[in-house]
Specification:
Layout lengths: L1 E4 L15 E4 L3 E4 L7 E4 L7 E12 L18 E13 L4 E2 L16 E2 L4 E2 L4 H4 L26 E10 L12 H8 L3 E11 L7
Antiparallel strand pairs: 1-4, 2-3, 4-7, 5-6, 5-10, 6-9, 8-9, 10-11
Protein name: YbhB/YbcL family Raf kinase inhibitor-like protein
Length: 207
């Protein structure tokens, strides 16, 4: 199976139009256009009954104490965890693309609702947890929300866009399911997968 993420080249920086946060010299970060990129895939195997789309960052600090703190830098050797940015399940087997801006076009304070979206069913991304303490932003974030790594991180973050072809029409997930729920539900049902990885940083020393 082959995946194309329009505007994102393998191993290259992700354009700011797809980012939740963009570099700002005064405040380190400001909101970005936050559009989902167009995904197009082909050569799904025979027997495909649905697709899962996900995008995640495996480079997120496991301890958030120093995230975006003046005068501090997040060390490269700090253990890292997955942060899910996009979860779509039960994408119909007939689908071969998701248009740019279809699932997100701008930052939505307090989030977007999980459940049926323009294409497939939206799961909950990790901005739900990350922004929980911010009274202006706290809410349930579902569907796509793009890169916004800590501006004081000493490493460039990687973002894996993935499409998985499944042998089931539905994973049976509903409500506020997250990335771990999706991985658990699709285990044993993946016929083929494809991935494109882009990079992103808000650290001016790494840009």
């Amino acid at each position: 199976m082959k995946l194309h993420v329009h505007g994102v080249e393998q191993g290259q920086p992700i354009p700011e139009k797809f980012a939740f946060g963009v570099f700002n010299e005064q405040d380190h970060m400001s909101f970005g256009p936050n559009r989902n990129p167009e995904l197009a895939w082909e050569e799904a195997p025979e027997g495909t009954r649905s697709f899962v789309v996900m995008m995640f960052d495996p480079d997120v600090p496991s301890v958030a104490d120093d995230v975006n703190q003046e005068g501090k830098t997040i060390p490269a050797d700090l253990p890292r965890v997955d942060f899910f940015h996009w979860l779509l399940v039960d994408v119909p087997a007939s689908a071969t693309r998701i248009p740019e801006g279809e699932d997100s076009d701008g930052v939505s304070p307090k989030g977007k609702q999980p459940g049926p979206g323009p294409i497939g069913t939206r799961g909950v991304n990790n901005y739900t947890q990350f922004l929980a303490g911010n009274p202006d932003m706290a809410g349930t974030y579902a569907g796509y929300d793009g890169p916004c790594p800590p501006w004081n991180d000493s490493i460039v973050h990687h973002y894996h866009f993935e499409v998985h072809a499944l042998d089931v029409e539905s994973l049976g997930l509903s409500g506020e399911f997250d990335g771990n729920d999706v991985r658990e539900a699709m285990a044993g049902h993946v016929l083929a997968s494809a991935r494109v990885t882009g990079t992103y940083t808000l650290n001016p020393d790494l840009r």
